[in-house]
């Protein structure tokens, strides 16, 4: 099927390349649109299923949509592939999306109703246009993206900078229209080694691997160097939370996963739009890495045959077609408001492929957070235990030296787009040659002096943790600034397959201390000043089996997932010096550091199989 190419004019005169695929017949037809920076007629890596793992070109997906009676619209974002204009990541997609919707509803073949879809950046473009409530918009399927608040997740994470933005910028500069048109520019970029450059952090404008493509370097440093949560972070395209009360009334599906960078985005938009009384909202959270919804292994862990979306949806395309039919044709739906994958329950053995069999199954809920889940405090104790009871009144504080020249290496977790430097998923928290920044003798991260480890006694019965996670820490540092990180881990006991046990990462979080009280007005610290630091971990859902332990690791770095705090108090993204910080975590009754875990009663879990 050959599309019709339109150059759709935006309000500033820039024309965007737009492919239109139409069903046979006179029409008019409802429209399904994807706006993407990855090529409107290129292969979409996530358009596949468990039964057919060959990714489809967007033209093939368009043909399937057309067969169902929908006009299929694919558009290149400005400055990418066939579209005119200068690419500035995220910030032009709201107005461009609105203008495209306004153009669509005026076309004689469009019946005036539009649904949008797309993964990752194509989810960000959806949320951006949804904020402006464009004409015709009635449904959205936002898969792993759609910034709720990019300062708390997606670009920065509570002050720290997500270095996936650096790798994404480089990898996409390499395939940019400018690089394709200029062999010298392409050769210069291709000659750079990103892993080498990650050993030379922090980068400097004009002296980074992106120096050959100044536009991409400029937007990267603008994000990196802009620390406080002010008007910059409240722009259209990266802060849907500020538009929830005036967002489109479209029905929305918010989908993400436990090892994706966007579960906080998906849950935040679900809750915000629900509370604002906008259109019907659904939430789906799987066990996957970014967009990998039809496989079962993520990192070194196998989540079992039910882990795919295909296990209950048929496949992802079928799910979307049903949703479009419900929104556009009034088809009946029995879908729950919330569908979650509860990790855990597997054999704990090593599979034939050499992966940990952690297992899991789908559950449903009426809302998010799951109403029956009880937020339960687990306190940090000076002896390294993690328990519901308050610590002793006279317990001594715990201290460690954090050296930014030797950060704690990232070993999996909820991240994406860091290739070739790091990958997401769940791994045993043990150093190894495959992980950036690890060095022999490749010992457990828990052996590091700059990692504080707190864990429960072996559980006497299964414990379900389902929902948002927050660590409230009473801390201090001996310098002007530092970071605090928290990591939630399911600790397997020793077994024949894993004689040293297995420390399986579930989720993590970080806080840059200068932003602890007011993200818009950072404040450097006096040495030894007591700070109440709330570290938000991304949400999760895990069944900790009997005999396992719940573990919380506290440190001050997680590199290369996040940029490294130099402890000097220099402006974000502009540091040139480092200092070793002595960081303190208090664990006494008056300054009782704790993590809040949402515990879902066992009986409730058995009633929710979905």
Task: Give an overview in words.
The chain contains twelve helices and 26 strands. It is an alpha/beta fold. The chain has helices spanning 58-67, 93-105, 121-130, 164-173, 177-181, 183-190, 194-198, 214-225, 263-275, 310-313, 316-329, 602-606, and strands at residues 4-9, 15-21, 29-36, 71-76, 110-119, 137-143, 156-157, 160-161, 251-257, 281-286, 297-298, 301-302, 338-343, 356-357, 360-365, 374-380, 386-387, 398-402, 452-455, 463-477, 483-492, 502-512, 531-544, 549-555, 581-585, 594-600. Helices cover 18% and strands 27% of the residues. The chain folds into two domains: 4-148 and 245-365, Rossmann fold; 149-244 and 374-567 and 577-610, Galactose-binding domain-like (Jelly Rolls). The model has no long low-confidence stretch (mean pLDDT 96).
Mean pLDDT rating: 96
First-last Cα distance: 38 Å
CATH topology of the largest domain: Jelly Rolls
The best one-word shape is globular
Percent strand: 25-35%
Uncertain ranges: none
- The radius of gyration computed from the alpha-carbon positions, rounded to a whole number of angstroms, is 24 Å
Distinct helical segment count: 12
User: How many strand units?
Assistant: 26
Helicity range: 10-25%
CATH architecture of the largest domain: Sandwich
Structural class: alpha/beta
Largest sheet, strands/sense/barrel: 10 strands, mixed
Domains (count)? 2
CATH homologous superfamily (4th level) name of the largest domain: Galactose-binding domain-like
The spatial strand order of the largest sheet comes to 1-2-4-3-5-6-9-10-13-15
